[in-house]
Design a protein that fits this description.
The protein has 497 residues and is of the alpha/beta class. It contains 19 helices and twelve strands. The radius of gyration is 23 Å and the shape is globular.
């Protein structure tokens, strides 16, 4: 059972920054101070991986590598790898409310290469130690990125023209590593900087009473170093493109389902290998975070797979997942794990039974319960103690958008009555009070709901690509002591401090 605590969900890219995107620098430390002054225990972030298609943190080039865009430029200046003038010259018009990923792609990489050119012998020795400590994944990831972006012109894995490299012929790999030696070293340097900056930030957070909740997507990208290095663990075609892809059938978010594009696992292959790759993945994430949230938990009981080439997720089928055998193996190998689970979507008795057997907390979301004709599990008075509950999520509308823009008039009136709110109080505070007062041990809110923001602040709309997805940023002046004091008072009142 988790203690009675609370926290805020805010991805690092959403933090303020003078350089166009939230990073691991000073504003991240300032956010830790904000959480501490607001008496919060948890800071939940989205996956920190190296993003690919659509800038989604759920579609990354590696299950372990960090996103270079999160590396703080001012810290590189402090370390003597860049100058303030170089950083200023590369800055672009800062959009205070959103990330401009296109501008980042144009400006960050020349700065990173400039910083890499100034690596001295002392730093090189530290990078060598870091590489040895992460030998299980780092050299392959660095080679994958060098091949994909320098050798093969950003083509996905299955379009690589050299069959011997794509299928990892040892002689071909030796030759290509020698050819791309400097580019591989550059990619390793970026990971060293990411992990070093992240470790310092996490230490600071822990020292100030804040624990970090990370997020593990159940699937990996089809165009990733994970698929390239472990193809037998996925359902692939001969060219390593997906044969079967993941998604969900028609649901709350989409009438045609969600087609994610990730290759589904060959769970029999994982079982024969005693889930070694997953054990490594869990160990890697627990080196980054204090707790981990497993996305799409229901996929471990049964998962929706669709043949590659389908335009929607409608024509798919449910397949059995690894079930309790998977979690028993993790526990036998690693002991009790600080895991929370995302058990939303189409939840069957079998999924509920699996969650009960693991003992992990499941998720409930307030905005899913605002239906006057139903008394469902997403209303706070029905929350179970062993659960993690939210006002809204990164994939949903904010509480203000839900009530003010999307609810029917009867639903809106029910929401006002249930939340005991009025025009004199911001909707976000009313929602937070309702969730904080519940019996659930872990209560979370989004930063958008702390600030009572609406549709313009939505982080992601599932089943869509592009637009404003993943781009939202908070303004620096919004993270003030008045806001922290109100959240802190609510937290003390409902015994979560």
């Amino acid at each position: 059972m988790f203690p009675r605590k609370s926290g805020v969900l805010a991805h690092i890219t959403s933090l303020p920054s003078p350089h166009g995107v939230g990073t691991l620098g000073q504003t991240a430390y300032d956010f830790v101070d904000f959480l501490a002054s607001a008496r919060q225990t948890y800071w939940q972030v989205l996956p920190l991986g190296h993003t690919g298609f659509g800038d989604s943190p759920y579609q990354c080039f590696s299950a372990a590598a960090g996103n270079p865009y999160l590396i703080d430029l001012d810290l590189l200046v402090k370390d003597g790898l860049l100058t303030a003038d170089e950083v200023a010259a590369a800055d672009f018009p800062n959009k205070p409310d959103e990330v401009d990923f296109d501008a980042l792609a144009q400006t960050r990489w020349p700065l990173f290469r400039c910083a890499f050119s100034r690596v001295d012998d002392a730093l090189r020795a530290k990078i060598t130690d870091f590489t040895e400590q992460n030998a299980e994944w780092l050299p392959d990831y660095a080679l994958f990125m060098a091949l994909r972006e320098e050798k093969y012109g950003y083509r996905p894995l299955w379009e690589w023209p050299d069959d011997a490299v794509r299928t990892r012929d040892p002689q071909a790999l030796r030759a290509i590593r020698e050819e791309l030696h400097e580019e591989i070293a550059f990619r390793i340097f970026l990971q060293y900087e990411f992990w070093t900056q992240w470790a310092a930030l996490r230490t600071y957070a822990n020292e100030h009473g804040v624990q970090i909740i990370g997020d593990i997507p159940i699937y990996v990208s089809s165009d990733s170093s994970d698929v390239w290095t472990h193809p037998t663990l996925f359902k692939l075609q001969d060219d390593l493109s997906p044969r079967m892809i993941a998604g969900v059938p028609p649901d709350y978010y989409s009438a045609t389902g969600q087609l994610w594009g990730n290759p589904v696992y060959d769970w029999e292959a994982h079982k024969k290998d005693d889930y070694t790759w997953w054990i490594w993945r869990m160990q890697t994430n627990l080196a980054l975070f204090d707790l981990v949230r497993i996305d799409h938990f229901r996929g471990f009981e049964s998962f929706w797979e669709v043949e590659a080439g389908e335009e929607t997720a409608v024509n798919g089928a449910w397949r059995k997942g690894p079930g309790t055998d998977f979690f028993d193996t993790l526990q036998e190998t690693m002991g009790d794990l600080p895991i929370i689970t995302e058990d939303l979507g189409i939840i069957t008795d079998e999924v509920r039974e699996l969650l009960c057997e693991t003992g992990f907390p499941g998720m409930r979301v307030l905005i899913f319960g605002l239906l006057p004709e139903e008394d469902n599990e997403h209303l706070p008075h029905n929350y179970l103690p062993n659960s993690i509950v939210y006002t809204s999520t990164h994939d949903s509308q904010t509480i203000c958008e839900q009530v003010m823009d999307l609810c029917t008039e009867p639903e809106k009136q029910f929401a006002y009555r249930y939340l005991r709110t009025s025009t004199s109080e911001a909707m976000g505070w009313s929602a937070i009070k309702s969730v904080w007062a519940s019996p659930a041990r872990t209560a979370m809110t989004t930063l958008q709901d702390v600030l009572s923001l609406g549709a313009d602040a939505r982080m992601n709309t599932p089943a869509t690509i592009g637009g404003r997805n993943w781009r939202w940023r908070v303004r620096k002046e919004a993270l003030n002591q008045d806001v922290a004091a109100i959240l802190g008072d609510i937290t003390v009142t409902y015994k979560r401090a």
